[in-house]
Design brief:
Blueprint lengths: L3 H8 L2 E6 L3 H8 L13 E6 L5 E8 L7 E9 L3 H8 L6 E4 L3 E5 L11 E4 L8 E5 L1 H4 L8 H4 L34 H10 L4 E8 L8 E5 L2 E13 L2 E9 L6 E8 L2 E7 L3 H7 L2
Antiparallel strand pairs: 1-4, 1-5, 2-3, 3-4, 6-8, 7-8, 9-12, 9-14, 10-11, 10-13, 11-12, 13-14
Length: 282
């Protein structure tokens, strides 16, 4: 079973409410995706980058009650204070952000309400049919935990710890970028990689045929290092599934690889990454 510490890497999110007549304009100016009101309860995933193209905030935005007067803003990952950055960059724009007491939990199905003010929003993650249930901790206890293998089998990362100091391209997050929109922070770096070449390493899952919790360990193909395991995300019976960054030209399904962890040697396999293939062709 998955330990609580590993479990937390998948779930913990901060929920804000944003409002003001300019909040949609603001996020269009700052972040990577096109933001426009949607009445279908489907969230839009967008990234706030720094001037080096690295992810500062990984966000999803969605609307409730069929109104664009305010929106729910889901903070999946932040390396800096989101509130402070909004205050810093909004200038004279009318944008207000309020941190709520709500929480979010990934769900396999939706319902109008299960209690008080619990909302089900269609997930903004490509290739998976999931919902974000947003409500109080008490209400969300009624919702079963999703199966992490639904994400691992498609190569979709939900381990926030691997986002630190990474670019969207290293995490295969091309589908969170709209290349037809105007300027945003970090656009020059993203465009350069998109049109002139790939990053050295990008994300995939690695399977180890032992139930071990492994971190920060090189992956070898013969005598050559081709990547590195960063964290163990899920342990299921006699196998571990780990977040890893693999040399781009080696990032495909292959077996017979080795890692050395402490005094022990393990065989491992790079899993097929459907999300990487989908996102690179987005």
């Amino acid at each position: 079973m998955m330990s609580n510490s590993i479990h937390e890497r998948f779930y913990k999110k901060i929920i804000y409410m944003v409002e003001g007549k300019d909040y949609i304009k603001f996020f269009n100016n700052i972040t990577t995706n096109k933001i426009e009101f949607r009445s279908d309860n489907e969230m839009i995933r967008t990234l706030w980058l720094n001037n080096k193209g690295r992810i500062v905030h990984d966000l999803s935005i969605g609307w409730i009650n069929n109104s664009d007067s305010k929106a729910l803003l889901i903070d999946h990952f932040s390396s800096e204070s989101l509130i402070e950055n909004i205050l810093k960059y909004k200038m004279s724009l009318d944008v207000k952000i309020i941190k709520t007491d709500l929480e979010a939990k990934i769900s396999d199905s939706s319902s109008k309400r299960i209690g008080g003010d619990t909302y089900f929003m269609k997930s903004s993650i490509s290739l998976v049919d999931k919902y974000l249930a947003i409500g109080t901790n008490k209400d969300l206890e009624l919702i079963n935990n999703f199966d992490p293998m639904d994400f691992i089998s498609k190569g979709i990362s939900y381990n926030k710890k691997i986002f630190h100091n990474k670019t969207p391209m290293e995490l295969n997050l091309w589908c969170s970028i709209d290349f037809k929109k105007g300027c945003y922070l970090g656009q020059e770096i993203v465009a350069r990689v998109k049109y002139k070449g790939q990053v050295k390493r990008n994300f995939s899952y690695v399977k180890i045929d032992k139930g071990v919790d492994i971190t920060n360990t090189p992956i070898y193909k013969g005598e050559n290092e081709i990547g590195s395991i960063i964290y163990t995300d899920f342990i299921d019976r006699n196998a571990s599934y780990c977040s890893a960054f693999i040399n781009h030209n080696e990032n495909y399904n292959q077996t017979g690889l080795k890692i050395q962890y402490g005094e022990k040697e393990y065989y491992c396999e790079i899993l097929e990454n459907l999300f990487k293939s989908y996102s690179e062709n987005y």
